[in-house]
């Protein structure tokens, strides 16, 4: 029997669908606890979070929890994989762009920016010592865990449901970061809708059929807000420390690891077609991307190695790369 429930966490709508003989109330425990604990630890907007603790101690050595260390190590790995395009040390730039409060609050009014221009990117600003379980931020810098923690949490929760709770089939959608396993039935994949950014009709969305794996979508069209310096969004170009200006407005990445999918979807939006696609093909050869550009073009970047057990319906006019 499938159990279905939804809730709000990490400024996102979370949808969960699980096949299990356990009651919905029982299954909600590991899911709600997992997202709540992650938000309490990693949120930039909670003054009592471990993230806020690290930001308040920038320039100083700070000891961290096992969970924080794991995410910091993941962030360092993907910074290397993306040649610095992905970086969690963008908290100060986020604030300068007006993202000083949770997204629901900054939507309510125009944000006044005192310093619309951010300093240039200075390189590696995060020192992590896994043996000491410590981290040191560059003095004055701040971390923002954003999507990597949302995807990490969804994947952690899914792993626990599969191993500890013996959930045979499952679907978790954390605000566009989706992990699925087992299929919707014995011989049926999960069907995951991907909105077309240029269509308001839900029937025009693309559908991904996937039995087990992950898919993440990033877009510059959703989390946007008005400021006295113009409209801003949440994807920061680490070279300019300002919202990115690439031609890619939405990117969906399919693979087996949700964290990798989320990171690369964001990076392709930030770097754009000319630089982002070749880097993606070199560094993530078993993943696939679906890219929408500002002029309405659609590109399907297929994996260079291996094959993926998935299919699409509703794609029209896409070009393969």
TrEMBL record:
It catalyses: L-threonyl-[protein] + FAD = FMN-L-threonyl-[protein] + AMP + H(+). Its cofactor is Mg(2+). Gene3D superfamilies: ApbE-like domains. The keyword Transferase applies. Its EC number is 2.7.1.180. It is an enzyme of class 2 (transferase). InterPro entries: ApbE, ApbE-like_sf. One of its GO terms (molecular function) is transferase activity. It comes from the Bacteria. Keywords: FAD, Flavoprotein, Magnesium, Metal-binding, Transferase. PANTHER family: FAD:PROTEIN FMN TRANSFERASE (PTHR30040:SF2), THIAMINE BIOSYNTHESIS LIPOPROTEIN APBE (PTHR30040). This is FAD:protein FMN transferase. It comes from Paenibacillus allorhizoplanae. The gene is apbE.
